[in-house]
Each structure stands twice: as structure tokens, then as C-alpha cells.
């Protein structure tokens, strides 16, 4: 197996490839990339990455997360809803298929600070 990035993270599957965010050893942004299983790496833009991770309405969703496409964790459900969490506040957000906020679940934060790292 080949190491493709020492500091890449926030991996998003996409067909026969995956998208990821990369930074250097100082935590500075390098960019967004697509790794295909034919061993090719292509730089992509933040919009391409965000749409794959959160869906077509990603701009509305990311308003709730300070426009940070990398840190929040998300899943897309079969009915089109998107569930997103962000570890700083430990709130779970649910958006409908039209990217409207349905609810925010704050129950994980009621016992002090319990960190949610992924959905």
C-alpha cells in the first residue's frame, strides 16, 4: 500500500475514488484532492469537495458550521436527509432533502462536554 498523504483527512468516498483534505505539518491548508484507485491524485476545489460531502445544498448546511467543509462529519440518508455533527459543540444537526434545518439535538452536551467526533 502506498502512502498518499501524511496529513490528509476528512475522507469522503466517491465512486471508485475518494476525496480528502490535505494540510502540511504546521496545519496549513494544502488543498482538496481526489484519489482514484488507479493511483492518480487530482486537486479539486472546495465546492466539489463540499457538494460530495454534504449534497447540492452544501452552502446552506455549512452556514451552521462557519463555512468549514472539513471538520464537520456527515452522512446522507437514503431519503435525502443529511445528518451533520461538529465536535466543538457536540450538537447533531439534521437537514431535510431540500437542505432546510429540521432540528438540532443538543442532548450530548447536557452532561458537560461530551465530544462527538463522527456520525
User: Into which percent range does the helicity of residues fall?
Assistant: 10-25%
Distance N to C terminus: 27 Å
- Rg calc: 15 Å
Helix count, DSSP H or I runs of 4 or more residues = 2
Strand content: 35-45%
Q: Largest sheet, if any? A: 4 strands, antiparallel
**In order across it, which strands form the biggest sheet?**
1-2-3-4
Low-pLDDT residue intervals, each spanning 5 or more residues: none
The total domain count is 2
Q: Can you write the helix and strand succession as a string?
A: EEEEHHEEEE
Task: Provide mean pLDDT, rounded.
Answer: 87
The strand count comes to 8
Q: Indicate the overall shape.
A: globular
What structural category do the secondary elements indicate? mainly beta
Describe this entry's structure for a reader.
It is a single chain. Helix content is 12%, strand content 38%. It starts with 8 loop residues before the first strand and ends in a 14-residue tail after the last strand. The protein has two helices and eight strands. With 119 residues, the chain is mainly beta. The strands form two sheets. A four-stranded antiparallel sheet has the order 1-2-3-4, covered by helices on one side. A four-stranded antiparallel sheet has the order 5-6-7-8, with no helix packed on it. The chain has helices at 46-54, 58-62; strands spanning 9-14, 17-23, 29-36, 40-44, 73-76, 82-86, 91-95, 101-105.
Amino acid at each position: 500500500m502506498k502512502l498518499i498523504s501524511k496529513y490528509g483527512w476528512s475522507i469522503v468516498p466517491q465512486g471508485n475514488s475518494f476525496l480528502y483534505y490535505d494540510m502540511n505539518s504546521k496545519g496549513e491548508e494544502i488543498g482538496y484532492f481526489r484519489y482514484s484507485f488507479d493511483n492518480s491524485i487530482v486537486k479539486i476545489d472546495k465546492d466539489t469537495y463540499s457538494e460530495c460531502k454534504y449534497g447540492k445544498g452544501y452552502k446552506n448546511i455549512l452556514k451552521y458550521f462557519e463555512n468549514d467543509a472539513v471538520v464537520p462529519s456527515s452522512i446522507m440518508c437514503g431519503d435525502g436527509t443529511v445528518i451533520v455533527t461538529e465536535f466543538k459543540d457536540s450538537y447533531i444537526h439534521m437537514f431535510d432533502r431540500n437542505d432546510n434545518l429540521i432540528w438540532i439535538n443538543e442532548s450530548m452536551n447536557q452532561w458537560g462536554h461530551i465530544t462527538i467526533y463522527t456520525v
